[in-house]
Design a protein that fits this description.
The chain is mostly helical and 182 residues long. It folds into two domains: 73 residues, RNA polymerase sigma factor, region 2, helix turn helix motif (Rna Polymerase Sigma Factor, Chain: A, Orthogonal Bundle); 73 residues, Arc Repressor Mutant, subunit A, CATH 1.10.10.10. One of its GO terms (biological process) is DNA-templated transcription initiation. Belongs to the sigma-70 factor family. ECF subfamily.
Length: 182
């Protein structure tokens, strides 16, 4: 859908306000500029979903706010390791076991019903909250929670996992990895 000149002008006119809001959220101008850029890229890519005549600024500010909180959640899962202390202690199990585990996992995942597989990938692999996944799937949060639970149970059954057992390194490999990390 082509974007009208008036809409493009409104978008460009919103940049100073977006930047001010981004600075207030991010705390520094470099992160704010990145946040505004990401917001504009997402808005431009999704302009077909914007209804002309509605509040463009509110739409842009919502995108910016959501992007900021997505980045905050992502950073919460990251560990800073400027001196390489953690990286130096990393060890990995032999690749051939991982390859076979991954093949088995993919096969089991493909056997799940598509709605359960989708919910599990959104929440478990993509890092979306249950609420975000529910919005993406256009269903209730409880439905997503139920789908994820059923998917996890079915995967455990397909992979022949006992209650509390993890998937991946066998006991011997896990012991070797843990000793090399300590």
């Amino acid at each position: 859908m082509p974007v009208s000149d008036a809409l493009r002008d409104d978008l460009l006119g919103s940049i100073p306000n977006l930047r001010a809001f981004a600075v207030s959220l991010a705390g520094n101008s470099e992160r704010a500029d990145d946040l505004v850029q990401e917001t504009l890229m997402k808005a431009w890519a999704k302009f077909d979903s914007f209804q002309e005549g509605t509040n463009l600024r509110a739409w842009l500010f919502t995108i910016l706010r959501n992007e900021f909180y997505s980045q905050v959640r992502k950073r919460g899962r990251e560990v800073e390791d400027a001196e390489g202390t953690y990286a130096a202690r990393l060890a990995s199990q032999p690749a051939q076991n991982g390859h076979m585990d991954l093949r088995d996992f993919r096969e089991a995942l493909s056997q799940l019903p598509s709605d359960q597989r989708e919910a599990l990938i959104l929440v478990g692999a993509s890092g979306f909250s249950y609420e975000e996944a529910a919005e993406i799937c256009e269903c209730a949060v409880g439905t997503i929670k139920s789908r994820v639970s059923r998917a996890r149970s079915r995967l455990a059954e397909l992979l022949a996992l006992e209650a509390g057992e993890t998937y991946g390194a066998d006991a011997l490999s896990a012991t070797v990895i843990m000793r090399s990390v300590s």
